[in-house]
Amino acid sequence: MNYDFLLLGTGIAALSAAEAIREIQPAATVALIGAEGEPPYVRPMLTKLPMARYRAERTYIHPLSWYKEQRIELLLGTKLLALHPAEKTVETDRGTFGYGKCVYALGAYNFIPPFPGRDLSGVHDLRTSRDLSALRRSALSARHAAVIGGGVIGLEAAYLLAEQGLEVTVIETAPFLMPRLLDEASARYLESRMTRFRTITAAKVLRIAGGDRAEAVELEGREPVAAEVVLVSCGVRANSAIAQAAGAAVERAVVVDAHMATTLPDVYACGDCAQFQGFNSALWSQARAEGRVAGCNAAGQDALYSGADTALLLTCPEFSLYAEGDLGKDPNKHYTETLTIQESAPGFAVNPRTGALYERDFYTDGALAGVFLLGDLGGMQQRRQELRGGGWG
To answer: Alpha helix locations (H) across 214-370?
Structure first.
């Protein structure tokens, strides 16, 4: 079967490309190929809905009928084996498909460090709805859980496990939580607000101990952490191997230009598997924006990627958090900083406990460069406007 446009992946990047293509070329043949058995769904909801209530179909971006109406074919449960740019074909476990233009949007996979015990029963990562189902089944027969990795996904998952009645410990190898996003003072204050689980920072995981099933996480120089369930949340790596084997330029991810074009003819890339100017935030907002640019250009328009919203907005049972911009991390810049702490902030309070506010603002050359808000997010929109007016982003 040959298609005018073949999109490799079924995430938000591939879907956004398909939507753009269909808008521009109503009569073209379009297909999405994906290994998952689900149509495109809102992946961030995996850690934002209670485990007991999560159903993948509730997070579908479009109902199945939409794809029929748009004449976009879904080739679900199809594993991609190889890309052949000279022949303009892709090889899958369901046969070979030809294309006129191809959008490579295979996303990323979770990185699991090679510590001993990673293959024990009860050890999980979380990337798909199937992963969440497996984690939920393990939690039903457990009393203790450990989350290795104190980033956004790790913290959200820790709350999900705590809501299941488990005693949860978050283990972070860095000196403080979310070091890529937060400064140390903000991270320490955030840690002080979390009471549903224990956190251990600056920890080195030696191994996951157990017989057939995980029993504990052993740490260097510390007491073992009891855990029949271990969730590993140590970041992602781009699914770029197939593109690299096909001859595309690949660094940490598939290299693209501002049109989302790869170095292969008639092949575009976008989302978590692509990097533009050496950068990829692996955020939903970036994947969506890049996907639309890739689709527009594949369909014959001239669209340029100009960046995406990379703000962090995190809402958990005990706190709400917003962080954006430069949080004082560039050693070549001089920062001035303001700190505001209110234990009972007025106005719109998202924090369900007190509505308290903790705010750190970072300035460079007299302009607001970065913001961290914890608690009352009533001032978030004003700060976002100031950041953009100050030239950040």
So the answer is: 241-245, 284-298
